[in-house]
Amino acid sequence: MSLQDAIEGMLLDDIAAVLAPNVVWVGLYPGELCRNRDEVLEMFERLRYREDQLRPKVVAKRDDILVVDPGIDERHHVLLLDGELVSEVRVYPDRRAAMAAVDERPPW
Description:
Number of domains: 1
Distance between the termini: 29 Å
Strand content: 25-35%
Radius of gyration: 13 Å
CATH architecture: Roll
Largest sheet: 6 strands, mixed
Low-confidence stretches: none
Number of strands: 6
Number of helices: 4
């Protein structure tokens, strides 16, 4: 299964398989922070039951980055990849802010 299929399918076992064990998730607000795969999966589970309209869609791909529209309000997620695994997720208030972060990312 591809990373995009796992994200868009929203099956927790498939998502778990594409998350690095030490994945970090940084949300929009202070305190919205997950520091490992189990915490991220717990957050996904809560989102699935709280948000009926949750329909994630990959809207941009660049090198080691995916931009995902989760289908909840205007927020977008930027996923940083380490090989085939997601190592970091950052949440932005909208697609413009997410794409600006991707565009402004300095080369390493």
